[in-house]
Amino acid sequence: MSEHRVVPRALSTTHEHLLAVIATEALSAGHSHFNLLDAGCGNGQLISYLLENIPVTSGSAVDVSGFDVLDDGVQRQGFLDAARATLSGSHPEIDWQEHVLAAATSEPWPFPKQSFDIVVSNQVCEHVADLNEFFSENARVLRNDGVAIHLFPLRDYLLEGHLLLPLVHRIASHDLRRDFIAFLSKHGVGKYRDRSQALETYAEQHADYLQGLTHYRSWSEVAEAAKSAGLRASYRYTPEYYWRRLARVRGRDYPYILRTQGRALSDAIWFRLLKRISSVTIVLQKRYTYAYNS
User: Cβ contacts of residue 276 below 8 Å, gap of 6+?
Assistant: First the structure.
C-alpha cells in the first residue's frame, strides 16, 4: 500500500487528518476488517468520508456507526434524522436507523461493551461536560487494544474557535467575558459583523454559550480523565494535522499513512507550541501490560 495514495479531497482538513490517523492505526494493528464508532457524529459527513476512503488508505474493510446526544443544546433540532437521510442517499446499502443512534447526555452510549476497534470524534470533547464519563464510555465500548482518536482544542489555544475571539474562553467572570466579547466585536473582531442582532444581546448570549456549552481543559486534565478510565493517553499525530493544513494551502498532497515510531520527543516539543494554535490529536489506547511477578 503506497503511503502517498491520493484520496478525494474532503470538505475539512480535520476529516483528512482523522482518516490518516485511523488508517495508520488500523494498519499498525493489522486489521483486515474493523468496527469504528463516530462519537458525536453530527451531520454524518465524517462517517460518509471514512466509509468511502478507509479501504483506499488502509486496505481494510470497515463498518462505521455513529451516535450523538439530543439534549446538549449544541445541535439543531432534527439534525440526526437529517444525517440518516443524507447517509441513506450516499450509502443506501446500510440501515442507518440501526447504525446512527441517539442518546441523552446522562445515559450510557447505546452500544454493547467491546463493540468497536476504533472510536473517533471531531471537535466534540470541548463540548463534553463530564470528560471522565465520556472516556469511561470509550473504554467500555472499545475492544482490548482498541484506540480512540479525538481531535479538539485545549484551553491553551489563543483564538477561541467558535467566536473567533482571542482568550474569551479563559475568562471565568461572566461580566468580564460578556464585556470583552462586546468590546472586540464592536471593533470588528470575530463573527459579530455577520449577525443582525444588537451587540449587547450578542455579547450576553455568547458569554452564556461559552459558559454552558464549552468545557476547555488542559492536557493534564485530559490525561487524568484518561487514566481514571484505564486508558493510555498520548498526543501523537498532533503535528501532522498542521503539516496537512500547510500542504493543503500549498496545493500539495500529504501522506495518509503516518510515522508511528521514534516520534515521542518531537511530538512533545511540537505539542507545547501547537496546542496554542488550534486542535490537538489525543489518542487513547485500551491496553495494560503490567503483571506482578512474585
Answer: 156, 157, 158
Enumerate the H helices of 214-260 as residue ranges: 219-228, 238-249
In this structure, which amino acid lies at residue 215?
A: H
Cα Rg of the chain (Å, integer): 20
Catalogue all structural domains in the chain, each as residue range(s) with its CATH number. 13-154+216-285 (3.40.50.150), 163-213 (no CATH)
The cell numbers describing 104, all together, are 441523552
Q: How many CA atoms lie within 13 A of 126 on its CB side?
A: 24
Cell of 22: 485511523
Q: Which set of grid coordinates corresponds to residue 149?
A: 482518536
Measured distance CA(120)–CA(21) in Å, rounded? 10
50-91 pLDDT tens trace = 999 999 999 999 999 999 998 877 778 889 999 999 999 999
Q: In angstroms, rounded to a whole number, what is the distance separating the alpha carbons of residues 50 and 60?
A: 11
Q: In what order do the strands lie in the sheet with 280-285?
A: 100-103, 61-69, 33-39, 116-122, 142-152, 280-285, 232-234
Prediction pTM value: 0.94
Q: Are residues 215 and 131 in contact, defined by beta-carbon separation less than 8 angstroms?
A: yes
